[in-house]
Amino acid sequence: xxxxxxxxxxxxxxxxxxxxxxxxxxxxxxxxxxxxxxxxxxxxxxxxxxxxxxxxxxxxxxxxxxxxxxxxxx
Length: 74
Description:
It is a single chain. This protein has 3 helices and no strands. The relative contact order is 0.15. The radius of gyration is 14 Å and the shape is elongated. The chain has 74 residues and is mainly α. The chain has helices at 3-18, 24-45, 48-69. It has one domain (3-69). This is Uroporphyrinogen decarboxylase.
């Protein structure tokens, strides 16, 4: 198994695991890490639609993490 294939499998595992999270902040962090690995995977393969889509997903995850972090209680 090549390193790029391993990166793709780990990315898939992280994105899948993120869907099992009940805590939204943890979901966003784990999903973001999976998306980052998919960016690396897509870059290694020259599959730029994978790079662009997962880059967008990272931005969305970061936005929601920021929103969750600055949320005032009450």
